[in-house]
Amino acid sequence: MASRYEESILRSLRRTSRAIDLHSRRLAKQHSLTGPQLVCLRAILHQEDATPSGVARAVSLSQATVTGILDRLEARELIQRRRSATDKRKFHLRVTPRGRAMIAQAPSPLHEQFSARLSALHEGEQAIIDWVLQRVVALLEASDVDAAPMMMTGPADADVQDVAELLEPDEPG
Fold first, then answer.
1. Using N-to-C axis directions, what is the helix angle for 63-75 and 35-46, rounded to 10°?
2. Which domains does the chain have, with CATH numbers?
3. At what angle do helices 6-31 and 160-167 cross, to 10 degrees?
4. Residue 50: which of 35, 70, 77 has the closest Cα?
């Protein structure tokens, strides 16, 4: 038997997903950067000795997904990869000046209005929201799904054009 809240919860999840898609589209169009790319750039910038596996752990994405993202960032000259002097199998990552400029001008990968409103809540309310959302994830059996700390739906290793094409038909007229 269905819960009396099922339809309301489904509508809330759909609205959340839609808001995430709209924010992702704005980020991609205004800054030529996807949410996952921005999160990876920031992770590289903040890690003392960034490596692909360290970035993957920091952003909660698989190594394969991060490798695709790094390929795109490197092609755009936002990062540099250099082979380790001590272990030739290992690469070190560095954000280029162009990448730093991109980070400086890009908004938060989390919807800014949401972030501000969340921060304004009492810590206890934030903890309750976090707990409830973790329960939703568990109910959806989505605990093992790649989950970078960003607001974006769709493939995490998509490039800006992929995001624009994926979301374009949904743009309000």
1. 90
2. 11-108+145-163 (1.10.10.10)
3. 130
4. 70
The residue with tokens 């969340």 is: 118
Dihedral sign (CA 42, 46, 48, 53): negative
Using DSSP, state whether 31 is helix, strand or coil.
helix
Number of H helices, E strands in the chain: 8, 2
- Greatest Cα pair distance in the chain: 62
End-to-end C-alpha distance for the chain, whole angstroms: 39
Number of Cβ atoms within 10 Å of the Cβ of 77:
11
8 A C-beta contact, residue 111 and residue 61: no
| Strand stretches in the chain, DSSP E | 79-83, 91-95
The C-alpha atoms of residue 94 and residue 173 are separated, in whole angstroms, by 41
Phi, psi of 90 (to 5 degrees): -100, 140
Contact partners, residue 16, CB within 8 Å, separation at least 6: none
C-alpha span between 128 and 133 (Å, rounded)? 9
pLDDT averages per 10-residue partition of the chain, 173 residues:
87 87 81 86 92 91 92 95 87 95 82 82 95 90 61 51 52 45
